[in-house]
Task: inverse folding
C-alpha cells in the first residue's frame, strides 16, 4: 500500500489482476454502455491512417476498435502482463497487424516519444485516475506527443458518479471509519488503497477540475458521461438494450457530465 503514485506497485497489481481487466464490462463491474460511449468518441475523432498512442492500453479493448477504424496503434501500458493479454486479444480479433509496437511505460513519462509523434492519443478508463497527483504531469506528456491539431481523448473516474452509484457502500464505510474520513474523500477526490475503498489508490475527478486541466492543452471539442445507469446484467436482452440506449442518449447532455462513473472528453491539441 502506498500514498503516492508508484509505477512498480501498479504494474504488479495489474499483472496479478489478469483477465479481470477485460471481463469487467461483461460481468457488470463497469456498465457495458460505457464501452459504447468510448467507441462513439473514438469513431468521431480518429481516422483511418492515423497513428495513435493507446496509453494505458490494458488488454486491448480500445486498440481493437482503433484497428477496426484503420488506425495504426502504439500500445503502452504499465503492466507487462496486461500487454501479453493485449497481444493475445488483438491477435484473436484480427487486429494485430495494426499494432506497430507494444511498450511497457508510465503515462507520466513519455520521454521515449518525440513531440507530436502521434496524430491522436487516447488514454481511456482509469490511467489518469490511478496516477493521482501526477495527473497533470501525465496530461502534459499526452498532449506533448500529440501533434498540434490532433486529438487527445481521455476518460477519468468521476467523483459525483461514483458517490451516486455506491452511496450505500459509502454509508457503510462512514459507520465503520467515521464521517470525517468520507468527507475528506469528497473534498480531495482521493480514494485510499484500503479495505472497502478501492484496489489501488485513485483520484475521482469533478468536471470542473478535469475541464481546467484539459483547457491548458487545447480546446475541448466534446465531453460526455459514461456509465450513468447501473448495468442490468440479469435483465432480458431487450431491457439491457433499452438501458444502453438511454445511457448513451443522456451521457452527452452537458448537465450530467459529472454524473456517470467516468467522464469522457476530447481535446483538439494546441
Result:
Amino acid at each position: 500500500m502506498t500514498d503516492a503514485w508508484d509505477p512498480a506497485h501498479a504494474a504488479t497489481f495489474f499483472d496479478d489482476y489478469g483477465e479481470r481487466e477485460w471481463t469487467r464490462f461483461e460481468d457488470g463491474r463497469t456498465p457495458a454502455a460505457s464501452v459504447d460511449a468510448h467507441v462513439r468518441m473514438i469513431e468521431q475523432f480518429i481516422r483511418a491512417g492515423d497513428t495513435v498512442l493507446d496509453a494505458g492500453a490494458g488488454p486491448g479493448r480500445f486498440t481493437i476498435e482503433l484497428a477496426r477504424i484503420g488506425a495504426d496503434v502504439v500500445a503502452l501500458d504499465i503492466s507487462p502482463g496486461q500487454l501479453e493479454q493485449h497481444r493475445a486479444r488483438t491477435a484473436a480479433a484480427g487486429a494485430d497487424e495494426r499494432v506497430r509496437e507494444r511498450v511497457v511505460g508510465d503515462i507520466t513519462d513519455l520521454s521515449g516519444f518525440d513531440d507530436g509523434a502521434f496524430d491522436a492519443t487516447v488514454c481511456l478508463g482509469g490511467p489518469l485516475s490511478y496516477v493521482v497527483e501526477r495527473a497533470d504531469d501525465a496530461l502534459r506528456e499526452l498532449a506533448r506527443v500529440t501533434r498540434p491539431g490532433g486529438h487527445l481523448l481521455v476518460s477519468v473516474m468521476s467523483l459525483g458518479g461514483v458517490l451516486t452509484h455506491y452511496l450505500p457502500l459509502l454509508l457503510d464505510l462512514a459507520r465503520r471509519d467515521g464521517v470525517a474520513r468520507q468527507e475528506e474523500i469528497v473534498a480531495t477526490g482521493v480514494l485510499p488503497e484500503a479495505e472497502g475503498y478501492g484496489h489501488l489508490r485513485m483520484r475521482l475527478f469533478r468536471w470542473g477540475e478535469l475541464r481546467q486541466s484539459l483547457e491548458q492543452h487545447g480546446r475541448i471539442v466534446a465531453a460526455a458521461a459514461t456509465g450513468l445507469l447501473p448495468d442490468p446484467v440479469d435483465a432480458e436482452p431487450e431491457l439491457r438494450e433499452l438501458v444502453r440506449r438511454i445511457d448513451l442518449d443522456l451521457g452527452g447532455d452537458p448537465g450530467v457530465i459529472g454524473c456517470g462513473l467516468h467522464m469522457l472528453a476530447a481535446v483538439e491539441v494546441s
Q: What stands out?
A: The first helix runs from residue 7 to 17. Residues 190 and 203 are 4 Å apart (CA to CA). The chain has a mean pLDDT of 94.
